[in-house]
């Protein structure tokens, strides 16, 4: 039976709700005489009506460690750059992760060639102390910049926490990125020290990166030291002119011991890391977040919205080039362990990640809707082959989910399970809309607006709307807002990115629908909006319809304005093997869109494309394709090094010439 949007798929048991971290917070708030809330909706309303009280309560509830007390929770409520959070405090993000200890699992890691390896909390703490001490010996001080180009491995987490623990500013890029894509990122940062791997594995291939990274070093004059992490082994050394240290040497250096190691606590405006926008439209933005901003936001999100607890083991398939890697590390703030996988999610077998979930005793499993489609098309039914006895929670993220995505987990993994979704972004290192363990799960619905996030849907006139699609905005500051962008001294780029379009709010660039119970639906990027004759259409609903049609494997749709004031909306589709676009299939697609969506959803033309372009993080390149069709040059709209399939754009460049000729 086909599942429809908004259909109730699961209701939490009374014990699940009662044992949740969310209910523990509600009880604590009442005992502290801060607020009495009957349900999540009342708690959310209080959090955005009294933000100073709410965020101050988060500080106390999670027992934030600071050398000095803060003098003010937030400097003002006006939405825009420059809000000061917990001024006067001195904190360290890594310290709050590493206050957890014990012999139970902190990191469980597997790769294409390595069996599951488990690192305990005590082992993790020791390795971080040793690496941090070695970094100090190499002259690294608070405020210095450290970058890494490493795969999704234990060493990367250790290097990250060690760097942050001494006040260095972290940034990372994935080794599979192209040379220019890495330089676009690290070149902005200007790191003093870089962690490089010798190479990486993916889909049974071994990719030697020594030559590529040696060339990169020639373009990074700020680098004084290199730490080499051997992943492949047997590769050539880096050139002699660079001061290269081995990972083995720095991780086996002196350990001052838990009592003697000093975390460098830093002020509320001290940058924690630089994360990067996807880089699909020119040079990626290098976004700085603060220690305290990310700390307080992630304590809230990982504990309350993800319901993570000590002893849990949480997995999300990611690469180090995506902010999801940072978020995965942030899950450890709760005392939960994390699970890493380095390699292709479908190698050596299509169901490899489910084997990992069983072997690592996963409680939380995260993947993208694209992964679910892959499982479905290959007939994978994890419940028939794997004992996922502790698995209680699924997190679907990375792109808008369809109703069938949620239902697949209930039909093929477990019928009694909390299937969640969320939506946020690199810019906020968190989510605007999120899950809550106290409420039912409805197909394709994100359960609620996140605590402390004053999210609204605005129509074209700037009026808040419910039960209809509008622009996602946030009209109240939140702690994990960027401190600044690199190379944006006057804040022009920061301001234009979020605050220029609609005054007084953060415009995130997503379409959202919020219903009366507070449930949220994301309908794609508003800057990739299909705007036909003044009516805005989100792309997600079109993909949901088109990609359910037999013979269609993938799709992409854009809409451009023509010179005569009209609109041209082509639908690009990729077809399964031995399938042709004939009149019958063309009419079937148009009929489905007309009947399941509306006549405005029917494209002007259906075009067979050899491939649909994607970023490395699995997002369709709607905006670059739209710009190509409007006449922009390829080099101005897309960064090939940030793409999964850069050669795919050649087709759209050629197609754009036919559009220009006919406009």
From TrEMBL:
Q: Where is the AMP-dependent synthetase/ligase domain?
A: 100-474
Keywords for the protein's UniProt record, in alphabetical order: ATP-binding, Ligase, Nucleotide-binding
Tell me which Gene3D superfamilies the record gives.
3.30.300.30, N-terminal domain of ligase-like (3.40.50.12780)
EC assignment: the record states: 6.2.1.1
UniProt GO MF annotations: acetate-CoA ligase activity; acetoacetate-CoA ligase activity; ATP binding
The source's superkingdom equals Bacteria
Fetch the InterPro entries from UniProt.
Answer: Acac_CoA_synth, ACAS_N, AMP-bd_C_sf, AMP-binding_CS, AMP-dep_synth/lig_dom, ANL_N_sf
The answer, when asked if Repeat is one of the entry's keywords, is no
Classification via NCBIfam families: ac_ac_CoA_syn, PRK03584.1
- Provide the protein name: Acetyl-coenzyme A synthetase
Supply the source organism for this entry. Zhongshania aliphaticivorans
Q: Give the source lineage, highest ranks first.
A: Bacteria, Pseudomonadati, Pseudomonadota, Gammaproteobacteria, Cellvibrionales
Q: What gene is it encoded by? A: acsA_2
């Amino acid at each position: 039976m086909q599942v429809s949007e908004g259909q109730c798929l699961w209701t939490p048991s009374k014990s699940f709700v009662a044992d949740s971290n969310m209910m523990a917070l509600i009880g604590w708030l009442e005992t502290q005489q801060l607020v009495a809330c009957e349900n999540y909706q009342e708690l959310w309303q209080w959090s955005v009506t009294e933000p100073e009280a709410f965020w101050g309560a988060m500080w106390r509830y999670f027992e934030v460690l600071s050398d000095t007390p803060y003098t003010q929770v937030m400097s003002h409520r006006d939405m825009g750059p420059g809000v000061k959070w917990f001024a006067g405090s001195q904190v360290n993000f890594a310290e709050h992760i590493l206050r957890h200890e014990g012999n139970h699992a902190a990191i469980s890691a597997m790769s294409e060639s390595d069996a599951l390896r488990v690192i305990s909390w005590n082992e993790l703490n020791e390795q971080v102390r040793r690496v941090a001490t070695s970094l100090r010996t190499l002259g690294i001080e608070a405020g210095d910049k450290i970058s890494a180009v490493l795969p999704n491995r234990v060493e990367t987490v250790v290097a990250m926490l060690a760097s942050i623990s001494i006040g260095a500013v972290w940034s990372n890029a994935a080794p599979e990125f192209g040379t220019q894509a890495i330089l676009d990122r690290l070149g902005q940062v200007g790191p003093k020290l870089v962690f490089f791997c010798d190479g990486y594995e993916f889909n049974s291939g071994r990719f030697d990166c020594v030559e590529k990274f040696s060339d990169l070093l020639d373009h990074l004059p700020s680098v004084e030291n290199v730490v080499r992490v051997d992943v492949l082994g047997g590769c050539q050394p880096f050139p002699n002119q660079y001061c290269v240290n081995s990972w083995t040497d720095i991780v086996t250096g002196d350990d001052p011991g838990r009592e003697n190691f000093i975390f460098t606590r830093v002020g509320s405006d001290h940058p924690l890391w630089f994360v990067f926008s996807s880089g699909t439209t020119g040079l990626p933005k290098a976004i700085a977040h603060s220690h305290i901003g990310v700390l307080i936001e992630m304590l809230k999100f990982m504990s309350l919205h993800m319901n993570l607890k000590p002893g849990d083991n949480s997995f999300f398939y990611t690469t180090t080039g995506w902010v999801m890697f940072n978020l995965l590390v942030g899950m450890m703030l709760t005392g939960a362990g994390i699970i890493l996988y380095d390699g292709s999610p479908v190698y050596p077998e299509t169901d490899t990640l489910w084997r990992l979930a069983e072997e690592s005793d996963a409680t939380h499993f995260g993947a993208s809707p694209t992964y679910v489609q892959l499982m479905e098309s290959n007939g994978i039914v994890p419940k028939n082959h794997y004992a996922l006895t502790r698995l209680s929670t699924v997190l679907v993220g990375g792109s808008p989910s369809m109703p069938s995505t949620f239902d697949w987990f209930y039909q093929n993994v477990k019928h009694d399970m909390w299937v969640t979704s969320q939506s946020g972004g690199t810019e906020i290192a968190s989510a605007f809309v999120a899950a809550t363990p106290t409420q039912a799960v409805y197909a394709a619905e994100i359960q609620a607006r996140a605590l402390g996030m004053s999210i609204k849907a605005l129509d074209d006139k700037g009026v808040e709307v419910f039960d209809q699609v509008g622009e996602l905005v946030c009209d109240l500051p939140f702690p994990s807002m960027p401190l600044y962008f690199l190379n944006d001294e006057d804040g022009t780029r920061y301001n234009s990115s979020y605050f220029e379009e609609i005054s007084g709010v953060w415009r995130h660039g997503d379409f959202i629908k919020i219903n009366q119970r507070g449930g949220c639906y994301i309908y794609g990027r508003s800057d990739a909006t299909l705007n036909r004759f003044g009516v805005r259409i989100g792309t997600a609903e079109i993909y949901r319809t088109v990609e359910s049609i037999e013979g269609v494997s993938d799709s992409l749709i854009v809409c451009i304005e023509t010179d005569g004031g009209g609109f041209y909306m082509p639908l690009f589709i990729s077809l399964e093997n031995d399938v042709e676009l004939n009149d019958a299939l063309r009419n079937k697609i148009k009929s489905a869109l007309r009947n399941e969506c509306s006549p405005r959803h029917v494209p002007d033309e259906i075009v067979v494309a050899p491939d649909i372009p994607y970023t490395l993080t699995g997002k369709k390149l709607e905006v670059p394709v739209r710009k190509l069709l409007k006449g922009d040059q390829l080099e101005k709209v897309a960064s090939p090094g940030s793409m999964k399939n850069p050669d795919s754009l050649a087709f759209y460049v050629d197609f754009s010439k036919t559009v220009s000729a006919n406009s």
